[in-house]
Amino acid sequence: MSFDALPDVLQAAGVSLVAYVPDAGHAALIRAAHDRPAFTPVSLTTEEEGVALCAGAWAGGARSVLLMQSSGVGNCLNMLGLIRSGRYPFLTLVTMRGEWGEFNPWQVPMAEATAPAFELMGVGVRRVDRPEDLVPTVEAAARMAFDGGSAMAVLIGQRVIGAKSFFGEGR
């Protein structure tokens, strides 16, 4: 699966710091961040901490990625002003909730607002709705962020990550 290649993609892009809020959609990538010596994983209590951490990493000479789900994007809006004002390169991978197969209706409003919220804060948005598009999209976004000095968000659609169930697997 394409997700298995993401640690290699991020490592090839020079990412060394992986900031994340624990999320099932990013579980394999989070495990890889803990297992690979090339990465320093940092578990966050809230998503906006990750925005500041990524800016600080760049200021200190390191490349980073922020992993979160769409429900956390709203927490980041004020802090994204730091990225915009400081013109920091920024890369975030966002697993989407509130889309195809969602059981939580309260996830839907933020899913609808995720891309526009990023765009209002000057973050470019690329979307992945097919597994085969994941790797090339993340590679392109990493180039745009780190080589082009842009702020980039890759939104990974719920059809790619799978819908969560209130009752767990198989119900």
Question: In a few lines, what is going on in this structure?
Answer:
With 171 residues, this protein is α/β, with parallel strands linked by helices.
How much β-strand is present in the residues?
15-25%
What is the mean predicted local confidence, pLDDT? 91
Instruction: Catalogue the unreliable spans.
Output: none
Mind telling me the C-alpha Rg?
Answer: 15 Å
Q: Element order, helices and strands? A: HEHEHEHEHEHEH
List keywords for this structure.
alpha/beta; 6-stranded parallel beta sheet
Report on this structure.
This protein is an alpha/beta fold and 171 residues long. Helices cover 43% and strands 20% of the residues. The protein has helices spanning 6-12, 27-35, 47-59, 73-86, 108-120, 134-147, 158-161, and strands spanning 15-20, 40-43, 63-69, 90-95, 124-128, 151-156. Strands 2-1-3-4-6-5 form a 6-stranded parallel β-sheet, with helices on both faces. Helix 2 links the parallel strand 1 and strand 2 (40-43). The protein is globular. The relative contact order is 0.17. The mean pLDDT is 91.
Write the layout of secondary structure elements.
Elements (H helix, E strand, L loop, with lengths): L5 H7 L2 E6 L6 H9 L4 E4 L3 H13 L3 E7 L3 H14 L3 E6 L12 H13 L3 E5 L5 H14 L3 E6 L1 H4 L10
Parallel strand pairs: 1-2, 1-3, 3-4, 4-6, 5-6
Helix pairs in contact: 3-4, 4-5
